[in-house]
Amino acid sequence: MSIPHYHVVAAIILHEEHILCVQKGIAKYSYVSYKYEFPGGKVEADESHQTALRRELWEELSLDIHVGKLYHTVFHAYPHFHITLSSYLCSAISIATLRLTEHIDYRWLLPVALPRLDWAAADLPIVTKLARGSL
Ligand SMILES: Nc1nc2c([nH]c(=O)n2[C@@H]2O[C@H](COP(=O)(O)OP(=O)(O)OP(=O)(O)O)[C@@H](O)[C@H]2O)c(=O)[nH]1
């Protein structure tokens, strides 16, 4: 049986020099359970990356966002599925509406502090690039 491949979009939300990091709860696979990630999700058929990001951010966090430029794209092979993870620089229209509906925690961190969290493996190249100060 072939391994599924998903296109996933992730929002790097910058606010006053901090970046929003969200923690996943228990998941089907232990290697993504409780990991930090950037908010976002799978792109649906016939959906643009921008539309998918705005939909996911509204569903997951009640955040209305502006989607800016593509930051970094990563291919990662997890044991049971593969993802192409496209991260975009984004800003929230207001962070006052932020409400967790799916995640169990969130943090606003300076880029240099991002590597202290326990990230999903696919995110590590993005986290490393941000922490090196490349924005
Ligand atoms: N949103 C998001 N997902 C990520 C990141 N890194 C990463 O490996 N992923 C993985 O990419 C997949 C995104 O799918 P998703 O959030 O739409 O859906 P899900 O698997 O949690 O649930 P679902 O398929 O039942 O709706 C998850 O397996 C998630 O663990 C990231 O930075 N942001």
TrEMBL record:
It catalyses: 8-oxo-dGTP + H2O = 8-oxo-dGMP + diphosphate + H(+); 8-oxo-GTP + H2O = 8-oxo-GMP + diphosphate + H(+). It is an enzyme of class 3 (hydrolase). Pfam families: NUDIX. Its cofactor is Mg(2+). Keywords: DNA damage, DNA repair, DNA replication, Hydrolase, Magnesium, Metal-binding, Mutator protein. One of its GO terms (molecular function) is 8-oxo-7,8-dihydroguanosine triphosphate pyrophosphatase activity. Signal peptide: none annotated. One of its GO terms (biological process) is DNA replication. Gene3D superfamilies: Nucleoside Triphosphate Pyrophosphohydrolase (3.90.79.10). Its EC number is 3.6.1.55. InterPro entries: MutT-like, NUDIX_hydrolase-like_dom_sf, NUDIX_hydrolase_dom. Residues 4-132 form the Nudix hydrolase domain. Belongs to the Nudix hydrolase family. This is 8-oxo-dGTP diphosphatase. The lineage of its organism: Bacteria, Pseudomonadati, Bacteroidota, Sphingobacteriia, Sphingobacteriales.
